[in-house]
């Protein structure tokens, strides 16, 4: 999606340099993903490229407005929970939590650090986007329901996350889910389990890990989650955060005013999020 | 909300016997709650009662379509987590989780037991509904943002809930959130902390506890959560499940085809949910 003169419009990014308005095909990218005819038309128009405008002149928005944002806890081998050792066996089941829709932000949005937290952290992830509706699909069928891939910053208030057994509140602050820059369709990704997720903070690479280390592969997540709920076009599954590099972990400090975090995956693009100082709200103090 | 000839309509229940169509004032109850003028007009029309039709002839739908359903874990003293004793001090912070929108059902809907679980349970709760937008509101201001109260069944697949640290998947199966029968506005509830939540299953009362036992009172929840996200009209906060009575706990068995569970609170009405056998889906087995 990008900002048009009269509101958000779906578009196609051509060669990483141009944006083609697809507003004539569908109102939203979710609708486009759900409609094979519109999607094929979009591919042909993008291949032609006629009428596209320079990407640099366009404000990209979050590429979809997901009905659900489902997130994986521990899902990269080596990203170990506190106290665990590398010899721990893989977990038997994925640990899944939900981010509420108020977290969603686009690639051009600045995220305001909330006054109620002083320990905000980033997590750079690959997110898969559902194309066709998935209702209890088998593992074999699951991959066909993935429309494509994008990047997601699972911003987390660690102080709130650790206050109680459930992490939700630390994960669901307004703006804690930048998504983008765009969706790369599944057919354009040779092997989603051979991608390197790199995260850079202030010029320092803090994360660099391959999706080959995923405990639960992309298609499995679709299969598994589709038994709980019917997954709809545009739903996002954030596939989990690779472990921070040991030096980065040692040097870690909470996000502060002016910080920027870039998530980068070759073939998927990069998503840079800037963080800004809290805007005073009515009341800061929690019980 | 109720089912009109051309789609869902907002309505007012008059004296528990009649339903007045409020479609002329707002499209949805969320919009009504957000608009003081429309809400006052609704009160006057309901007081007059002209043009109302018998409640028994109407299909009630979930009273709002919440943007968020935020739920409390342990929030009644005496409803103890496994292994805890009655002497445990109150938790310092609320334990909050999220139910995704696909759980929402109305008071007339039958909930299908999912094939992927064989341990589905009920939790009868009072839900508060946000009226005015709440952005980091103080504890003193918080109560004014509560539009009213309704009932909520926090249906839970215990097997899935206990598979991982986060409860989400056990909580988010399609249909696991019956809400209703209607919203009783806050001004009509003398003291929300002097209500008895009663749950009945197959003629047996399994829960009977007063909101006087709440660890975190209603207004505190609004205050606390509004620091994380701006609460919007129609958002629902399910205030937690009272403990099952010891005999009910001892006799507990998972919900089965044909079971019905009724949640009842004097002054708020009652919400009966029927459960039906799984409809076969494409694939049943999880990893």
Note the topology.
The structure is a homodimer of 287-residue chains.
Chain A: E1 2-4, E2 7-9, E3 11-14, E4 18-21, H1 29-33, H2 36-48, E5 53-54, E6 69-72, E7 96-99, E8 104-105, E9 110-112, E10 120-121, E11 124-130, H3 139-142, E12 146-153, E13 156-157, H4 158-161, H5 168-171, E14 177-185, E15 196-201, E16 204-210, H6 218-225, E17 236-238, H7 246-250, E18 260-265, E19 269-276
Parallel strand pairs in A: 6-17, 8-14, 9-19
Antiparallel strand pairs in A: 1-2, 3-4, 4-5, 6-7, 10-13, 11-12, 11-17, 12-14, 15-16, 15-18, 18-19
Keywords for this entry:
15% helix, 287 residues, five-stranded mixed beta sheet, disordered C terminus, seven-stranded mixed beta sheet, homodimer, alpha+beta
Fraction of helical residues of chain A: 10-25%
**Order of secondary-structure elements of chain A:** EEEEHHEEEEEEEHEEHHEEEHEHEE
Number of strand segments of chain A: 19
Mean pLDDT of chain A, nearest integer?
Answer: 93
The low-confidence runs of chain A, each spanning 5 or more residues with pLDDT under 50, are: 283-287
Largest sheet of chain A: 7 strands, mixed
Count the DSSP helices of chain A.
7
Largest interface: A-B, 47 and 48 residues
Based on Cα principal axes, name the global outline of chain A: globular
Structural class of chain A: alpha+beta
Strand order of the largest sheet of chain A: 7-6-17-11-12-14-8
């Amino acid at each position: 999606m990008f900002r048009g003169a009269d509101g958000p419009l779906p578009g196609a990014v051509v060669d990483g340099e141009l944006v083609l308005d697809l507003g004539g095909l569908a109102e939203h990218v979710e609708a486009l993903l759900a409609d094979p005819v519109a999607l094929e038309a979009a591919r042909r128009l993008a291949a032609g490229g006629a009428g596209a405008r320079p990407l640099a002149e366009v404000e990209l928005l979050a590429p979809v407005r997901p009905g659900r944002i489902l997130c994986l806890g521990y899902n990269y081998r080596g990203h170990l929970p506190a106290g665990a050792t590398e010899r721990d066996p893989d977990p038997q089941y994925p640990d899944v939590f939900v981010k509420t829709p108020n977290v969603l932000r686009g690639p051009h949005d600045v995220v305001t650090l909330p006054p109620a937290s002083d320990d905000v952290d980033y997590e750079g992830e690959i997110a898969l986007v559902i194309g066709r509706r998935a209702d209890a699909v088998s593992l074999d069928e699951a991959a066909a329901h993935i429309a494509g891939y994008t990047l997601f910053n699972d911003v987390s208030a660690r102080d709130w996350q650790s206050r109680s057994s459930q992490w939700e509140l630390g994960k669901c602050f307004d703006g804690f889910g930048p998504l983008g820059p765009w969706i790369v369709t599944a057919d354009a990704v040779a092997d989603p389990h051979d991608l390197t997720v790199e995260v850079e903070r202030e010029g320092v690479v803090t994360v660099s890990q391959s999706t080959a280390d995923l405990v639960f592969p992309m298609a499995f997540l679709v299969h598994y989650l589709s038994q709980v709920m019917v997954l709809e076009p545009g739903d996002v599954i954030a596939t989990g955060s690779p472990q921070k590099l040991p030096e980065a972990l040692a040097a870690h400090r909470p996000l502060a005013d002016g910080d920027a975090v870039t998530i980068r995956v070759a073939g998927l693009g990069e998503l840079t999020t800037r963080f800004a100082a809290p805007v005073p709200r009515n009341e800061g103090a929690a019980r």
